[in-house]
């Protein structure tokens, strides 16, 4: 699985953590939690023309 390879490579390179953004309503939130990520904070990012990204910022401590 791609995410497992990313985690392995981050470990190999000595990273302390991984961070990602995911839309709050995206079913992938549960997958990321299953993989060990936790919700660190929420962010609302203005992407213009009245649209925003309403995201969770998730982190995995390696």
Describe the 3D structure:
The protein is α+β, with helices and mostly antiparallel strands and 62 residues long. The chain has a single domain (2-61), classed as Aminopeptidase (3-Layer(aba) Sandwich). The chain is built from two helices and three strands; from the N terminus they run αβαββ. A three-stranded antiparallel beta sheet has the order 1-3-2, with helices on one face. The longest helix is centred in the N-terminal third of the chain and has 11 residues, at 2-12. The relative contact order is 0.29.
List keywords for this structure.
three-stranded antiparallel β-sheet, alpha+beta, elongated, 62 residues, Aminopeptidase
Overall average pLDDT = 97
- Percent helix among the residues? 25-40%
The shape, in one word, is elongated
- Spatially, the strands of the biggest sheet line up as 1-3-2
Give a short account of the largest sheet. Answer: 3 strands, antiparallel
In total, the number of domains comes to 1
User: If classified by CATH, what would the architecture be?
Assistant: 3-Layer(aba) Sandwich
The CATH class label is Alpha Beta
CATH fold-type name: Aminopeptidase
Tally of DSSP β-strands: 3
Q: Which homologous superfamily in CATH is the superfamily?
A: Gcn5-related N-acetyltransferase (GNAT)
Structural class: alpha+beta
Radius of gyration: 13 Å
Q: List the helices and strands in order.
A: HEHEE
């Amino acid at each position: 699985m791609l995410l497992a390879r990313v985690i392995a490579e981050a470990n190999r390179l000595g990273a302390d953590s991984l961070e990602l953004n995911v839309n709050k309503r995206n079913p992938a939130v549960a997958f990321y939690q299953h993989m060990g990520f936790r919700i660190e904070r929420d962010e609302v990012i203005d992407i213009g023309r009245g649209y925003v990204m309403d995201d969770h910022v998730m982190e995995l401590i390696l």
